[in-house]
Structures are given as structure tokens and as C-alpha cells.
């Protein structure tokens, strides 16, 4: 008997060994001759080639049929991604369909094996039956495309709590009971749940910055926040609550409830009050406020707090039952009420979804217009919008109140009542009310239906302006009755422009909010996130600092070297006699190696072409001189402007003061303090010296820039009273001799090159002139 049992065990062992060897011997990759990284196209190509070669009808080899069966079986396994994945992981070549069945088979074998050797799971505190552990997370598994396309957009409506786990993670198994409890609680409140397997979704885990398991993170408004505390229920619930913005729900008392409810007009949305005996705002209510923050404003009243008695008494609140009220245009009574001993998410969603808009909402954005007045999808889903076009001032208040009363009395599923201010949405209003309409500037009512998303609508306006009288009410009611029986009653059509977003914050505030969010996220990442995530930011910061300090140091050393190596400036040498008499400026009578500067005289012949009809973008730089200073000033002028002759848009001319003083003084009247108004005490006004003035004239745009020369030593002496009256009298007789001194005259244009640089930069002051006067 003992020998029989031993023989039976040996037979069973041999059968098991043969099965294992046969399974190991079958390698579909080896049979098809492809690698484990081969694509489906490569696998299919190899299969077709081998199938043609080993087909029994074409190959007469005795083992061709068995070989062909192996090729077909290998292709069947590798062409199915699920079977191929099971083979790569577990060596499964059987007929098991899917991962869980194969996993259960292996677990049963391992369970029988460790039972025979008296292993106890409780000794290791490790649940080897991992199928039961993973089944609860299976419906929450996230993939990269699913996360990017669905989870991230949905995080703007509700927060997500995401766990990142992996195989053979003992810490993941340790937090599993707490995770299940928290998921069961938070999912009922409206929190999204996600699970990411780091082994199968490495790309997604790396994208989120999770480089270790287990990791828990929160997602809200597209932003990721990591959980860093002990994994207990209280910490996880508080973590989700901290993800929400802090200003979602306002605490309401007897002192501020009127102000809160009266903000419906400014915010253009209904206001919701929750009365409860809990001292803190419930998490369910905060999550609801976050989901409906674009449509509703939320307040919370703690009925057990002193200072809420008047509020509870006015609205007849049962302090023992949670009560939710919605207030619209009327703050003295709620538009809708719901009471329940246990507020559930489904009950709250049903209640708020029916009260998302005011009775007569104001159209403040294109998004709101599309929600209130959706495009017609079928004859049974028609939605008509009754639009009151009115003003914002107090004189239109009566017509608006009458329209609101009409909307309240005629509420229907197919009708939406809205109003709009014409001063805020002028393009929209002009499409519906022509300029010659008698109701322009007064309140008007238009019934419209949107036909497509491109802005096309059909509409009909009341013939007369809307004043809210009984006659107006009867006319509008009759139009709505006709519309119900005859959809073609709306005879006019037009294309509406998109509405402006009136309640959007200004660009500066949006920039501040974005900068604050980025800084707070970077600050949190600096202290808590993995250093791999911070490396790009740190690299950018240190690179910018290195470039900045390197540039400053190099610039400092180069400046000191230039100052040390630069030779002392040379004084201007007095021109020779031939230079004074020669008005041609070539490289022979100027600084060597400098080319020719073409300077033409501005006369009545060249006036039209060089100024009045000058092409757009071109400027004429005109030097003012006299016959006595012509040679000296032209030489200095050529030296100063030579470096700017490369531009084809700048022309150079000179104007004779002796011939055209009146033209110059007329132009200078448009420049501040350039040509002061004469008076009876100014004896020498007609002899004022304008030599050395330079005007940059833009003939097309009719403006000029002015260069005032530096005063010479003789002019400084006269200005400071260093000459007596006799000297001044003599000075008038010797003015020509003073002005003919080359050194003093040339110094007037010392800073002209700097002025030319500012002219090209566009930083000079511009003096505009109505029209160019005639040169004569």
C-alpha cells in the first residue's frame, strides 16, 4: 500500500513536470522568429511568410502539419494583445481569457503549496490573494489619455483624490483599509476617485511627478497637490477640504444677510442659503458650492449661533432640520426651498440644477447666452428667448420691473426671459434694432430663437417700445400665443456678434492671480515635491543668474579697459583759408577717409520735393545758417551727420536765414519756447540769431523735431550782463565778426550727433503743424 502511494505521487509529479516542460518549450516568439518588442505588423509579416512555407498543401514534409499548427497557435496568441500580455507576464499559453482567471489559477496553486508547508498568511500580515485586493480599485484605474481628456477637465467641477500603487508594495497593502473607507465616504459626497498602477502606467505616473509608491495626490482646477501626512481618515478628508478655495461659502448672520442677498444684481446669479445646526460648514456643501460656483453664490447660516435669530424667524426656519433656500430677484422670500433630515448629494443636485439662473438674467457673456438660449435641435426642443433691451440708469427701472413681473407670471419650459444693457453690448443690440428704429434709446423687447452656433437667429421685435403698461403686456402675450401655434412667426433673421464678458477680471488682475498660483505651486513643490520635478526650474534660474552676473562682470572689465586705453580727445583745429572759401565737402578738405555728404539748399524750387511731397517714412534734416556762417556750419554739420548718411530715408538740407526768416519763425511758433512772442521792450527780436538750429522735418505726417545749439561764449556773456550798453551796441555792429569766428560757430553743433541718435530712436519730442507754409 505504501509503495502504491509512492508510485502515485511519482506519476503525478512526472505529469506535472511534463506539462511544465511543454509549456516552457512553446515559445511563440521563437516559433515566428520575432523579438519580444516586435510590432503587430512585424508579427503578421512573419506569420504570412511561415504559413506559406509550412502549409500542408504545399509542404510535403511529415512534420509540416504540426509545424503549421504551432505557427497558427503562436500567431493567435501574439496577435491578441491581452493574451500576449499574459504570456509576457506569466507564461500563459492556455485558453484562459483575461488576467483574473490566470491569476486565480496561479494563486490556487501557490495557496495549496504553502498550505502543505504550514505557511500562515497572518504570520506575514500579507494578503496573498491579491485579486480580492485589486478588484475594488479596478473601476477607478486611470490611463494617460483618459486622465488628460476627461479627468483634468472634470477637475474644474470637482476635486479628485488619486492613489498611485504598484505590485509587491507592502506599504500599499498597509493603507488599503483606510483608503477603502475614505473612498466610500468621499465618493458619496461628490469627490472623484482615481487609481494609477505605476507598473502599467509609468508615463502617467511620471507626468504627475510620482516617483515612489504608494503616493496620494489631489487634483483640482488642473493643479496637482501631493499628500504628505499620515494615511488616516481624518487627514485624508482634511486634505480634500483644503484643496477647495477658501471663499466658496460665506458665513451669514443677521448683520450681513441683506447685503449678501442683494448682490444678485451685481453678480447676476441666484444666492443660496443653507441653514444647519453644525458649527462648521459641511464638506458636502463646500463641494456643491465648488461645482456650481459659476452659477450660484452660497452662504451658510449656523442656526445655533447667537445673532441668527432674526434670520431664522423671518424665513420660518426649522432649526432641527437642514434647510436650503434659493433667492433670486426677490430677497424678501425664497424662490425655492428644500428640507431634509439628511441632505444627500443627489437631492441637492436636483434642487440646484432647477434654479441655476435668475428669472430674467442679464446677458453678460456669450457662454451665458448659449446656456440660456440653446440652439434648436428639433421641433420638440425649441427654446425661445424673450430679450428686454434696456438701459442701466434709474429711469429704466420701471420697465425692467414690469418685464420681471411678466416673466414670473409666464414661466414655461420653452421660454427664457433675459435682459441686456445696450451700452455694454452695442454690437449685439445693433444687430436686432436698426438705427432708424423708433425704440432705439428706449426699452425694447425682442423674441428670438438661435438656429446655429455661428450666431444666426430668427427674431421679431415689438412694434413699439416697452414701457411695461397693460397694453404692452397684452401685445407680448399675444405674440407668444401666436409663436406657440406658428413657429414661422419669427420673420426676421440676422447674425449676432459674440457678447463681451462684462464680469471678467481685467488683464492686470488675471496676471496677478496667475502669478500667485504659479508661485504658490512652485513654493509647495520646492519643499515637498521630488527633486526631479524641480531640476528644470532650478536649472533655468541658475542659468539666468550666471548669464546676468557674467554679463555685468564682463561689461565692467571692458568699460575700465576702454577708459584706460582711449587716447585724450583732440581739439578742433582751425580751418585753413581755403576751407573757409570752399563749400564742397570731399575727403580732401575734411577728415581723411570720409566720403561725401550731400547737403542741398532748401529753396522755393526744391521745397515741394524735399519737404511737402516727401515720401512717407522719410525725413529731411535742415540746418539753419546765414551767409556769414555758411562755410563753418556746413563743415561741422557734415562731420556730425556723416555716420547717419547710410540711411536712404534721411535727407540733409540747409536753409538761409537771410532769405527765409519769416518762414522759420512761423514754424517755430509751434515749438515751445523756440520763438517767443515779441513785445515793445524787446529791441533785438528781429535780430534774433537762429544760426545753428537744426530741424528734422517729416513732410508726410506734418511734424518736426528741434535741435537748439549750444550758446557761444559771446552769447553767454551777453546773457549774463558782462557787456554794457555800448558793448552791446558795438556787438550789433560786430555781430558778423563774432559769428564769423570758426571756433565759436562750430561749437554750436557739438552735440548734434547725440541728437541724431535720439532722432533715429524716436525719443525726441515732436511738434505738429497744421500745414507747411509757403517758403515765400
For the structure shown, list the relevant keywords.
six-stranded mixed β-sheet, extended, 21 strands, about 775 residues
Level of helix content?
40-55%
What is the distance, rounded to the nearest whole angstrom, between the alpha carbons of the first and last residues?
A: 142 Å
Shape: extended
Q: Note the quaternary state here.
A: single chain
Structural class by secondary-structure content: alpha/beta
Q: Which strands sit side by side, in order, in the main sheet?
A: 10-12-11-13-14-15
Number of strands: 21
Average pLDDT number: 77
List low-pLDDT spans.
20-24, 95-133, 527-532, 562-566, 569-595, 677-684, 717-740
Range of strand content: 5-15%
Total DSSP helices: 33
What Rg do the Cα atoms give?
45 Å
Largest sheet: 6 strands, mixed
Structural commentary:
This is DnaJ sub C member 16. The protein is α/β, with parallel strands linked by helices. The protein contains 33 helices and 21 strands. Helix 3 packs antiparallel against helix 4 (64-79). The longest helix has 35 residues, at 531-565. The N and C termini lie far apart (142 Å). Mean pLDDT is 77; it is low at 20-24, 95-133, 527-532, 562-566, 569-595, 677-684 and 717-740.
Concise account of the structure shown:
With 776 residues, the protein is an alpha/beta fold. 45% of the residues lie in helices and 14% in strands.
Mind sketching the topology for me?
Elements: H1 2-25, H2 28-32, H3 40-54, H4 64-79, H5 81-90, H6 99-116, H7 121-124, H8 130-135, H9 144-154, E1 160-165, H10 170-174, H11 176-189, E2 192-197, H12 202-208, E3 215-220, E4 223-226, H13 233-243, E5 249-251, H14 257-262, H15 264-267, E6 271-276, H16 283-291, E7 297-302, H17 309-314, E8 323-327, E9 336-339, H18 345-353, E10 360-362, H19 366-372, E11 384-390, H20 397-409, E12 415-421, H21 426-432, E13 444-450, E14 456-461, H22 470-485, E15 492-495, H23 507-528, H24 531-565, H25 577-581, E16 600-601, H26 607-612, E17 619-625, H27 630-641, E18 650-656, H28 661-668, E19 694-698, E20 703-707, H29 713-719, H30 725-733, H31 735-739, H32 742-746, H33 752-761, E21 767-768
Parallel strand pairs: 1-2, 5-7, 6-7, 10-12, 11-12, 16-18, 17-18
Antiparallel strand pairs: 1-3, 3-4, 6-8, 8-9, 11-13, 13-14, 14-15, 17-19, 19-20, 20-21
Helix pairs in contact: 3-4
Amino acid at each position: 500500500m505504501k509503495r502504491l502511494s509512492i508510485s502515485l505521487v511519482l506519476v503525478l509529479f512526472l505529469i506535472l513536470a511534463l506539462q511544465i516542460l511543454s509549456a516552457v518549450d512553446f515559445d511563440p516568439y521563437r516559433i515566428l522568429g520575432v523579438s519580444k518588442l516586435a510590432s503587430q505588423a512585424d508579427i503578421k509579416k512573419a506569420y504570412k511568410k511561415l504559413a506559406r512555407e509550412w502549409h500542408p498543401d504545399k509542404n510535403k514534409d511529415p512534420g509540416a502539419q504540426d509545424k503549421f499548427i504551432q505557427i497558427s497557435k503562436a500567431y493567435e496568441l501574439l496577435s491578441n494583445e491581452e493574451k500576449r500580455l499574459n504570456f509576457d507576464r506569466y507564461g500563459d499559453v492556455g485558453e484562459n481569457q483575461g488576467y483574473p482567471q490566470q491569476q486565480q489559477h496561479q494563486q490556487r496553486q501557490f495557496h495549496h503549496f504553502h498550505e502543505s508547508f504550514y505557511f500562515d498568511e497572518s504570520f506575514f500580515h500579507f494578503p496573498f490573494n491579491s485579486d480580492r485586493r485589486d478588484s475594488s480599485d479596478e473601476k477607478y484605474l486611470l490611463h494617460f489619455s483618459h486622465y488628460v481628456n476627461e479627468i483634468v477637465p472634470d477637475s474644474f467641477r470637482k476635486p479628485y483624490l488619486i492613489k498611485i500603487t504598484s505590485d509587491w508594495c507592502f506599504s500599499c497593502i498597509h493603507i488599503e483599509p483606510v483608503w477603502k473607507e475614505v473612498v466610500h465616504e468621499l465618493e458619496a459626497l461628490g469627490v472623484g476617485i482615481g487609481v494609477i498602477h505605476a507598473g502599467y502606467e509609468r508615463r502617467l505616473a511620471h507626468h504627475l511627478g510620482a516617483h515612489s509608491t504608494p503616493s496620494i495626490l489631489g487634483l483640482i482646477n488642473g493643479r496637482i497637490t501631493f499628500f504628505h501626512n499620515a494615511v488616516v481618515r481624518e487627514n485624508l478628508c482634511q486634505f480634500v477640504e483644503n484643496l477647495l478655495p477658501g471663499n466658496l461659502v460665506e458665513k451669514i448672520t443677521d448683520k450681513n444677510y441683506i447685503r449678501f442677498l442683494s448682490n444678485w444684481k451685481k453678480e447676476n446669479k441666484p444666492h443660496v442659503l443653507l441653514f444647519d445646526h453644525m458649527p462648521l460648514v459641511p464638506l458636502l456643501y463646500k463641494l456643491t458650492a465648488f461645482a456650481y460656483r459659476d452659477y450660484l453664490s452660497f452662504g451658510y447660516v449656523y442656526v445655533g449661533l447667537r445673532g441668527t435669530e432674526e434670520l431664522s424667524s423671518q424665513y420660518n426656519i426649522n432649526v432641527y432640520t437642514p434647510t436650503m433656500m434659493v433667492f433670486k430677484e426677490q430677497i424678501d422670500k425664497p424662490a425655492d426651498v428644500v428640507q431634509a433630515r439628511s441632505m444627500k448629494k443627489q437631492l441637492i443636485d436636483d434642487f440646484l440644477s432647477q434654479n441655476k439662473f435668475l428669472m430674467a438674467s442679464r446677458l453678460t457673456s456669450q457662454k451665458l447666452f448659449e446656456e440660456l438660449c440653446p440652439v434648436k435641435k428639433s421641433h420638440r426642443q425649441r427654446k425661445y428667448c424673450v430679450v428686454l433691451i434696456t438701459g442701466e440708469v434709474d429711469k429704466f427701472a420701471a420697465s425692467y420691473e414690469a418685464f420681471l413681473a411678466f416673466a414670473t407670471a409666464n414661466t414655461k419650459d420653452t421660454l427664457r426671459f433675459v435682459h441686456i444693457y445696450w451700452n455694454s453690448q452695442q454690437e449685439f443690440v445693433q444687430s436686432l434694432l436698426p438705427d432708424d428704429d423708433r425704440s432705439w434709446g428706449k426699452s425694447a423687447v425682442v423674441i428670438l430663437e438661435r438656429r446655429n452656433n455661428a450666431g444666426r437667429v430668427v427674431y421679431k421685435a415689438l412694434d413699439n417700445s416697452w414701457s411695461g403698461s397693460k397694453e404692452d403686456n397684452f401685445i407680448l402675450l399675444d405674440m407668444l400665443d401666436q409663436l406657440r401655434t406658428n413657429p414661422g412667426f419669427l420673420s426676421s433673421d440676422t447674425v449676432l456678434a459674440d457678447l463681451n464678458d462684462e464680469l471678467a477680471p481685467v488683464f492686470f488682475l488675471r496676471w496677478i492671480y496667475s502669478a500667485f498660483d504659479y508661485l504658490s505651486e512652485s513654493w509647495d513643490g520646492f519643499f515637498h515635491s521630488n527633486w526631479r520635478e524641480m531640476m528644470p526650474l532650478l536649472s533655468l534660474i541658475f542659468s539666468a543668474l550666471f548669464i546676468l552676473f557674467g554679463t555685468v562682470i564682463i561689461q565692467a572689465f571692458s568699460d575700465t579697459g576702454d577708459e584706460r586705453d582711449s587716447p585724450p580727445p583732440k581739439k578742433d583745429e582751425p580751418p585753413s583759408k581755403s576751407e573757409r572759401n570752399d563749400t564742397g565737402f570731399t575727403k580732401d578738405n575734411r577728415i581723411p577717409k570720409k566720403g561725401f555728404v550731400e547737403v542741398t539748399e532748401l529753396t522755393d524750387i526744391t521745397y515741394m520735393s524735399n519737404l511737402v511731397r516727401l515720401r512717407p517714412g522719410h525725413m529731411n534734416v535742415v540746418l539753419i545758417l546765414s551767409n556769414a556762417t555758411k562755410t563753418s556750419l556746413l563743415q561741422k554739420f557734415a562731420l556730425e551727420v556723416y555716420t547717419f548718411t547710410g540711411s536712404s530715408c534721411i535727407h540733409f538740407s540747409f536753409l538761409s536765414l537771410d532769405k527765409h526768416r519769416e518762414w522759420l519763425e512761423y514754424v517755430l511758433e509751434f515749438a515751445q519756447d523756440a520763438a517767443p512772442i515779441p513785445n515793445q521792450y524787446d529791441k533785438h527780436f528781429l535780430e534774433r540769431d537762429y544760426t545753428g538750429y537744426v530741424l528734422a522735418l517729416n513732410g508726410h505726417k506734418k511734424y518736426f523735431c528741434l535741435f537748439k545749439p549750444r550758446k557761444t561764449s559771446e552769447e553767454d556773456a551777453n546773457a549774463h550782463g558782462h557787456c554794457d550798453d555800448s558793448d552791446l551796441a558795438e556787438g550789433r555792429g560786430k555781430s558778423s565778426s563774432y559769428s564769423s569766428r570758426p571756433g565759436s560757430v562750430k561749437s554750436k553743433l557739438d552735440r548734434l550727433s547725440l541728437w541724431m541718435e535720439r532722432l533715429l530712436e524716436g525719443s525726441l519730442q515732436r511738434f505738429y503743424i497744421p500745414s507747411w507754409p509757403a517758403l515765400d
